[in-house]
C-alpha cells in the first residue's frame, strides 16, 4: 500500500481576503503568495487550510507592499497549534463541565 500523507487525504480549503479592492487606489488586488498553509483538526475532521496574501499591482501605489489576507482564516487557528480554535474552545468547555460534574457528585 502506498504511503499517503495526511495532507493528501484531508480536504483542502483556501481563503482570500474579504476585500477585493486596494484601499489606496481602488485597483483590484491580485494573488501574490501563500501566507500560511496548515493541517488543522476541526471537530468535523481535518482540513488543509491555505491563506493567500493579495497585493495591489498598480505601479507607484503606496499600498503595493502591503499584504491583504483573510481575517476569517486567522480566526480559525491559534499560533503554533494544530487544533482549530473552535475545537480547543469546545474541549475546554467539556473539561470544565466534567470538573463541575465531579464536584457536584463528590459534594452530594
Ligand atoms: Zn493600490
Explain briefly what this protein structure is.
Helices cover 29% and strands 28% of the residues. The protein has helices at 6-9, 71-74, 85-107; strands spanning 12-15, 29-42, 45-56.
Characterize the structure shown.
With 108 residues, the chain is α+β, with helices and mostly antiparallel strands. The chain has one domain. 29% of the residues lie in helices and 28% in strands. The protein has helices at 6-9, 71-74, 85-107; strands spanning 12-15, 29-42, 45-56. The structure holds zinc ion (ZN). Zinc ion binds next to loops.
Order of SSEs = HEEEHH
Helix and strand content put the structural class at: alpha+beta
Q: Taking Cα atoms only, what radius of gyration do you get, to the nearest Å?
A: 20 Å
Low-confidence stretches: none
First-to-last CA distance: 55 Å
Using the alpha-carbon principal axes, give the shape.
Answer: elongated
Average of per-residue pLDDT values: 90
Strand content: 25-35%
What topology, given as strand order, has the largest sheet? 1-3-2
The total beta strand count reads 3
Highlighted features:
single chain; 108 residues; alpha+beta; 3-stranded mixed sheet; 3 helices; 29% helix; binds zinc ion
Secondary-structure topology with pairs:
Layout: H1 6-9, E1 12-15, E2 29-42, E3 45-56, H2 71-74, H3 85-107
Parallel strand pairs: 1-3
Antiparallel strand pairs: 2-3
The chain binds zinc ion.
